[in-house]
Known about the structure:
The chain has 501 residues and is mainly β. It contains no helices and 33 strands. It has strands at residues 2-16, 19-34, 38-54, 59-75, 84-104, 107-127, 131-132, 136-151, 155-164, 166-169, 172-177, 188-194, 199-203, 209-218, 223-234, 236-239, 250-253, 261-276, 279-298, 314-330, 335-349, 365-366, 373-382, 387-396, 400-401, 406-410, 413-417, 424-425, 429-439, 449-457, 467-472, 480-485, 492-500.
Amino acid sequence: xxxxxxxxxxxxxxxxxKNTVYLSGYYGRDVFGIQDAFGFDWGNTxxxxxWNSIFSDKLFANFTGVYSDxxxxxGTPEDEEFQFSWNSRIQxxxxxxxxxxxxxxxxxxxxxxxxxYYLFDxxxxxxxxxxxxxRQKAAEPSVYVSSEQKIGNRLTxxxxxxxxxxxxxxxxxxxxxxxxxxxxxxxxxxxxQYTSGQTIASFFDLNGLEPRISANYLIDEVQSIKASYNRTxxxxxxxxxxxxxxPVDIWRPSGNYIEPATADQIALGYFRNVEIYQQKYELSAExxxxxxxxxxxxxxxxxxxxxxxxxxxxxxGQGRAYGLEILFRKNSGKLTGWIGYTWSKTERLVDGxxxxxxxxxxxxFPSNYDKTHDISLVATYQLNQKWDIGMVWxxxxxxxxxxxxxxxxxxxxxxxxxxxxxxxxxxxxxxxxLSANYTKEQKPxxxxxxxxxxxxxxxxxxxxxxxxxxxxxxxxxxxxEAVQLSIFGSIIPSITYNFTF
Length: 501
């Protein structure tokens, strides 16, 4: 079983010349099952209400409220002897006020504040067994100010500062560990009970400052260079095991045992506009380097599934990412599109102070998101005023994965041995998508507009690997075989109807 669907809509209501209200919503689910053995589905529900107000010809504001609900379910059929259903959920409530002030023709200032309230339900299991992990609550308020300023005819500066804070809140029961030891189940010496609304941990200090600055310099009418620096701080962490065969995402907020992750990035780019035979093209090349600290990873042999005190399975380390991005784009004529190429490296270094807190002997290793080569080819051809056709072809280096280096046996049970984290890669990923769009000619003074979109996803039916896992061979004893799991391994047609009024 494999199907997915999306539903989205948007309504605009103009109150008067200075005030407009926007309401939008989205609902989507992806459902996948394997031979009635097990299945999983995941999706998101969002709703956004935004009020745009113009105070004067120099100042306007957007007041926004957002609700987001991400739900993931994993389970077995109801007629199975051992039947269960696993549900994981994250809800966000976001409120923000954003202002834009056109101080002068050369200077634009943006400022505002926001708050995100999080509800984490890590796991609720029902069926043959019933269990539930504790709900976790958190809030992330922030304020920011930025300015875009033109200096002369060639230089533009964009600089700003954001200050963010984070608060973990009860009710919650948290483990207390013996000081001077690694966080392990065996080192738990007690528990702290937090009541509803009580602060468990807070991050409200100068480390929450996130500066950024970029400079764009026009060399001449067709050439420019851009340099930038920015710092970001992340309070919500995603922990994933590359050997998992299902997309179980484990999200955890920062707290007493999990520090926020911080990243500093610098970039330098060159941009050029080119005209060839009255056709306009863009060429850009950019290099970047990112340094990361307190990036979470899991310990060797970690048990991430249904773990209340998951901090015992995690260890923080360093990260770095660097690369080159090249883009060539055609912007005019019946044929438009672009070719993009990225060469990049994303690596981790985890070298803890206690036994069992090293990964790959404390040496750099590829992160889960490392893709050495990434190529995109996008083209659209306008046949006439009503029809256009398009294609998208993508290629990516296979993602890092941990393969077993040996196998062991204990009391007749054979198990794999892993000692080289992300030391192998899945096969390379590539895919071709085709599309055709029909836009109905709009009648004079007509408010209703509609269009049809026809698509073919994975046009040459490439069986790209989602994951690779290992099991005992069905027809041979004492033989372990690698099994490649492909979710979208065939051609998938689609029809979409769009309308506005």
